[in-house]
């Protein structure tokens, strides 16, 4: 991942910026009480004040900043944000008073509210879609993984300050100043890294298209979330999960230190284990799941995180809690970046910043609110349980287990129930492989075997795909594999046996299709979005099936098509990185579930296929070699998943040899056997003109 230079730069900037955020919290939490005069309560309140000004910008500004960030130049937003934050933190040692600490931290928080969505929304523009998940995992890893790093660094800088203090009295008196200077410097280096990142580019708004007001943009962002099932599913899941996280964070200090007698060492251990678990989950957790649907993975991991939480709630033992907290970290570490990847893949560039901002600000708001009230609710529960059970010291004993503060356990258990509930809900909303059993899908993905196809969606009129009297054959493969050549040879062979044969192709077999083909292959449209491309190919296919394929099959003809749905799965799925299940659904809908009886896949290395081309490259052919390699792998994966419906042939073999193998296989499925004697007379090329219906124009 980090070999992609633009992403590497953004990642360095994100890491430095996150390190700066954590370091600033540690430094200010240490500094605030030391500049506060008065009682212990005043000093403690100054620490709370630091937390409040840390979280407040997200509550007040999250959605507005996200909407504005969508309209601003992301690179400039990030550079300015870094410089402002750097200056603010360097200014704190110069004006060391509580008011300025609060003001500076609050203003820096506002800058972060712009910086974070601009950064998150830029990642999908810097990496290929198939690498987006890894990119998000690395980003999340640094966002949270820098927390323990910052703690270590803070300790190191404190030690350095003390050492320097022996020679330079300034450092002797100001132990956290070095950390604040370091903090400022980390933002400046981040600014330089982002400044050199020209690929983030300017957000383009045509002068003719009106740009909505900020308020309208926010409203549209909220409406978008409400009306988009995928994002709604994510929101339900994330918010529920962070509610539970708030309960865990809110109760952890008292539960571990007092109820479990872990003391501060026990608390530090559990804190470290959840961070390590999160880091492992984010860094490596989704790897064993191979091609398993990321939408399903999000729902499954979210629901699964209820299991360790339940154990934590029911078993008040420090060792057990430590182990299951670690497991909870791993599972949540898989779910969190998976959710972000889904937003990156499925929310378009214009609204992505707003959606990320919505997530980040709502998550922080929920965390803050739940952390604040969790202790009170648990105490209330304990009191109620004490009143019901009549226990004088508030303890409850169930089957040899003594619950010292049963309200804590009850609240943790309720959180587990909430997580399980939202996990199942969001799984239902997000599921993109309906009809494929979950367990089977999971095992297949873990074994790295090709995934089963999603059953075709019923037609719009509710009908299932209809049977047909004829035979439907598709020729598939990469560029220049010999599809057209072999399709024509087979058509000649079949016609000579008296079969009614219709040869056709995609895209562009119909009048509408010809226009779509021109749009799709024109190199002038090189920036076409992957979604638009997939829809145009599906539109061409819908017309193709309705006007040519279905009528021909229904009258009993043999239809031979040069490319069909598999081309979309390979090019737009494997090539462009769109989710295969969605392309299947889209095309299932467009074609009423019409699938070929046999698909002949001509397999050829893209280097060889592209070099067979005689004319200049069209828009798809002009894609880089890597794209065509992914397409080839995509085709082979489809064939491996359903070997009975495919004939895979080495397209480097001579024409006649390939043709013979195709004939042998087709003979097995032809309505009437073709006599062998007739074959000798039919090997010749060029073609007999194909039958072309009146309304259909042949673009070739
Ligand atoms: N088996 C083969 N060996 C060598 N050359 C071949 C073979 N099959 C086809 N060719 C040549 O490769 C070129 C491309 O063939 P063809 O047009 O049939 O491929 P295609 O898969 O339909 O290409 P496209 O993806 O552009 O539609 C032609 O010049 C054809 O003669
Ligand atoms: C049907 C279909 C096609 N494509 C691509 C594959 C080729 O690059 C062109 C068609 O060109 P050809 O010379 O006629 O083979 O379009 C695709 O990307 N997705 C599809 O569904």
TrEMBL record:
EC number: 2.7.4.9
Enzyme class: transferase
Residues the entry annotates as binding ATP: 477-484
Reactions that this protein is recorded to catalyse: dTMP + ATP = dTDP + ADP
Signal peptide residues on this chain, from the entry's feature table: none
SUPFAM superfamilies membership: MFS general substrate transporter (SSF103473), P-loop containing nucleoside triphosphate hydrolases (SSF52540)
Domain Major facilitator superfamily (MFS) profile: 10-434
GO terms of biological process kind: dTDP biosynthetic process; dTTP biosynthetic process
Membrane topology annotation: Multi-pass membrane protein
UniProt entry keywords in alphabetical sequence: ATP-binding, Cell membrane, Kinase, Membrane, Nucleotide biosynthesis, Nucleotide-binding, Transferase, Transmembrane, Transmembrane helix
Gene Ontology molecular functions: ATP binding; dTMP kinase activity; transmembrane transporter activity
GO CC annotations on file: plasma membrane
Electron transport keyword on record: no
Keyword set includes Membrane: yes
Subcellular location: Cell membrane
TM region(s), chain numbering: 48-69, 76-94, 141-160, 180-198, 233-256, 262-285, 297-315, 321-345, 366-390, 410-427
Role played: Phosphorylation of dTMP to form dTDP in both de novo and salvage pathways of dTTP synthesis.
Family affiliation: Belongs to the thymidylate kinase family.
Matches recorded under NCBIfam families: DTMP_kinase
Protein name per Swiss-Prot or TrEMBL: Thymidylate kinase
Species this chain originates from: Trebonia kvetii
């Amino acid at each position: 991942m980090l070999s992609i230079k633009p992403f590497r730069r953004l990642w360095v900037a994100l890491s430095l910026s996150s390190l700066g955020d954590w370091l600033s919290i540690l430094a200010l939490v240490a500094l605030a009480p030391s500049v506060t005069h008065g009682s212990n309560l005043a000093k403690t309140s100054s620490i709370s004040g630091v937390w409040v000004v840390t979280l407040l910008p997200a509550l007040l500004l999250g959605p507005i900043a996200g909407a504005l960030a969508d309209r601003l130049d992301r690179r400039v937003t990030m550079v300015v944000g870094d410089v402002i934050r750097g200056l603010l933190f360097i200014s704190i040692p110069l004006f060391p008073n509580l008011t300025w600490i609060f003001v500076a931290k609050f203003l820096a928080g506002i800058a972060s509210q712009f910086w974070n969505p601009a950064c998150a929304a830029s990642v999908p523009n810097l990496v290929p879609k198939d690498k987006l998940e890894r990119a998000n995992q690395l980003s999340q890893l640094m966002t949270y993984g820098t927390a323990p790093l910052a703690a270590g660094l803070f300790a190191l800088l404190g030690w350095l300050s003390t050492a320097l203090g022996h020679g330079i009295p300034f450092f002797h008196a100001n132990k956290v100043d070095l950390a604040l200077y370091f903090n400022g410097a980390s933002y400046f280096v981040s600014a330089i890294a982002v400044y050199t990142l020209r690929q983030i580019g300017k957000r383009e708004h045509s002068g003719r298209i009106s740009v909505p007001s900020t308020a309208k943009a926010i409203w549209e962002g909220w409406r978008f979330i409400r009306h988009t099932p995928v994002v709604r599913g994510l929101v339900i899941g994330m918010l529920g999960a962070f509610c539970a996280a708030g309960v865990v964070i809110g109760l952890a200090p008292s539960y571990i230190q007092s109820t479990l007698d872990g003391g501060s060492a026990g608390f530090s251990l559990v804190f470290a284990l959840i961070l390590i678990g999160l880091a492992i989950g984010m860094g490596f957790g989704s790897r064993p799941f191979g091609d398993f649907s990321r939408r399903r993975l999000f729902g499954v991991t979210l629901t699964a995180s209820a299991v360790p939480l339940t154990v934590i709630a029911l078993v008040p033992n420090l060792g057990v809690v430590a182990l299951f907290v670690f497991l909870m970290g791993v599972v949540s570490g898989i779910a969190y970046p998976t959710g972000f990847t889904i937003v990156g893949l499925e929310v378009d560039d214009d609204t992505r910043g707003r959606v990320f901002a919505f997530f980040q600000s709502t998550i922080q708001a929920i965390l803050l609110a739940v952390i604040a009230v969790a202790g009170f609710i648990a105490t209330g529960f304990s009191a109620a349980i004490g009143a019901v059970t009549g226990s004088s010291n508030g303890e409850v004993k169930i089957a040899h287990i003594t619950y010292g503060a049963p309200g804590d356990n009850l609240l943790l258990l309720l959180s587990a129930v909430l997580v399980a509930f939202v996990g199942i809900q969001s799984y239902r909303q997000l599921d993109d492989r309906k009809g494929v059993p979950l367990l089977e899908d999971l095992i297949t993905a873990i074994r790295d075997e090709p995934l089963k196809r999603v059953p075709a969606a019923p037609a719009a009129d509710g009908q299932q795909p209809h049977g047909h009297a004829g035979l439907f054959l598709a020729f598939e493969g990469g560029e220049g594999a010999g599809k057209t050549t072999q399709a024509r040879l087979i058509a000649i062979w079949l016609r000579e046996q008296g079969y009614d044969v219709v040869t056709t192709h995609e895209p562009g077999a119909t009048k509408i299709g010809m226009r779509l083909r021109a749009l799709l292959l024109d190199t002038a449209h090189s920036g076409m979005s992957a979604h638009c491309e997939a829809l145009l190919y599906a539109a061409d296919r819908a017309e193709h099936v309705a006007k040519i394929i279905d009528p021909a099959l229904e009258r009993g003809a043999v239809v031979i098509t040069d490319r069909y749905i598999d081309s979309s799965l390979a090019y737009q799925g494997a090539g462009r990185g769109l989710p295969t299940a969605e392309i299947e659904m889209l095309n299932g809908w467009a074609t009423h579930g019409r699938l070929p009886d046999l698909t002949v896949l001509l397999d050829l290395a893209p280097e060889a296929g592209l070099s067979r081309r005689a004319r200049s490259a069209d828009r798809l052919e002009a894609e880089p070699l890597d794209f065509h390699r992914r397409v080839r792998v995509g085709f082979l994966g489809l064939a491996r998943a359903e070997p009975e419906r495919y004939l895979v042939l080495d397209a480097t073999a001579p024409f006649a040899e390939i043709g013979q193998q195709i004939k042998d296989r087709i003979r097995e499925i032809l309505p009437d056997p073709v006599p062998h004697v007739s074959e000798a007379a039919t090997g010749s090329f060029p073609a007999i003109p194909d039958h072309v219906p009146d309304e259909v124009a042949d673009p070739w």
